[in-house]
Amino acid sequence: MKISSCLYGFVAHGAVFLFTGGCMLLAMLTSLPFVFLLDLLPDVVYTAGAILMLLCSYAYVWFWAVRFAYNQKMRLFEVQLGSFVLLAIMISLFLLDGSSVKDIVRNWEDTGCAFVPPAFTFLCLAYALVLLPVYQSKLWHLILPNGVRLKDLFHVFGDLTIIMALLISATLLFLSI
Question: Where are the transmembrane segments (predicted)?
Answer without folding.
Answer: 7-38, 44-64, 76-95, 115-135, 156-175
